[in-house]
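Moderator note: this is an archived Q&A kept for reference. The question asked for a predicted structure of one protein chain; the sequence and the answer are reproduced below.
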Amino acid sequence: MTATRYILSDYLNAALDRATFKAIEDGSFAGRIAGCDGLVVFGETIEECGDELRSTLEDWVLLGLKLGHTLPVFAGINLNIEPALEPVDSL
């Protein structure tokens, strides 16, 4: 039996594996992902910062896809490639 893959979820998880967090002077945290230009989030705790990072990353990817931006490749997952469509009668 073949394992089911969820490309967008796998992509987000691979991107989040590259996340870095930094404590700020006021005790809160900043988070970013190398390769995701302009994506920086803040949270009162590192957990809150991580949650915010995932949520913002999802929006960043969806907006990038909608606007046709080139997205970084993570774990060999390239969301920039046009999907190959099969004719309906091939099903």
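Archived answer notes: DSSP finds two helices and three strands in the chain.
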